[in-house]
Design brief:
It is a single chain. This protein has 16 helices and 14 strands. It is 44% helix and 16% strand. It folds into 2 domains: 217 residues, Rossmann fold, CATH 3.40.50; 163 residues, Rossmann fold (3-Layer(aba) Sandwich). The relative contact order is 0.11. The chain is of the alpha/beta class and 406 residues long. Helix 2 links the parallel strand 1 and strand 2. The strands form 3 sheets. Strands 3-4-2-1-5-6-7-8 form an 8-stranded mixed beta sheet, sandwiched between helices.
Length: 406
Amino acid sequence: MSAEDADHLAMPVRRRRVAFVVQRYGADVTGGSESLARSIAERLAATHSITVLTTCARDYVTWRNELPEGTEHVAGVEVVRFPVEEERDLEAFNRHSEPLYRRACTHEEELDWLRRQGPHVPRLVRHLESARSGFDAVVFFTYLYYPTYWGLKAAPERSVLVPTTHDEPPLRFSIYREVFALPRAFGFLTTAEEELVRSRFPLGDRPAVVAGIGVDLPRPPDVDSFRIRRDVHNPYVLYAGRIDAGKGCDEMLAFYARYRRACRGAAELLLIGTLAMDPPRGPGVRYLGYLGESEKTAAMAGARAILCPSPYESLSIVLLEAFALGTPGLVTARSAVLKDHCLRSNGGLWYGDADEFVEALDLLVSEAQVRDALGESGREYVEQNYRWEAVLARYQGLIAAVAGPG
């Protein structure tokens, strides 16, 4: 080996500087795309210099500034927060939105809708525009919000979009044709999501991979302690996540009430997570509030099934976590992503109406052999497809594709 080669090997490898742009960020922030961004950021920080550009908001309903403005370092990640300039009244926003979803809109109307939806953070966009040359890549999480639309316009050169797309009314707005035209590469969560995006937008030959998310295979959780702490004595099924009519929770509760009337030995329905609707009530229904990670894992492991009623999903971390624990899912067939998970894994069942919900839930609750077989298939599916090392390699490949040599 020559002295020149030895000197080259001794030189430290430059860590690529990568910005993540996401609407909310933090360990106490619940939400699929936000959890995805934090999981990827913290793990990539071992090999990259990660800066997260985000807001001071903790709550997506109001976008109220609750976290301090400025820079902090969390789990090896630099987090820079900017204040949201307008709070949101969700009911007023929904009243404004519904007529727009039913008719053609002007570009100005769509931009006004985007500002009203929020989070309105022009300072974040201005910062990104001025700092963009210092980043080797900029990764945007979620196609839907103000920071992604304006951020992509400010810094398209080395951009990656992780759109977390599902089929929802705003996807038809023309502003999102602009969003999907700008990124240099795409990271999708599932094959079904990529197929949806390609059916709506011309991606051409830009780099695109189904990057997914990693799921940690858990240690055996203490289900007995969870049951004692929460006074749970009977078989139960579980909903975990934001409790919101927009997530299908109203329909789930109505279908569960029908199941309860129809089936002997009906399981209880436990709900955990943050409330974005009136507290759920009814015979057999219990809301346990927000649980810490270890207690949530125990609750999922002890359930006869995890209920996933949202028609708007781009991945469903909760369903994959349940599969990893050997707990089968019961999902709405209106979500192509959720149904695809169940088909590919043979780890769950799906329903199209109340009758199918009742029949499938009764089968999962009462038939241990069926439940165990589905649970084992789901566990194998996660182990084969959602290991962290493989997922991180895909994200590293996307970053390298837009960053170029270095």
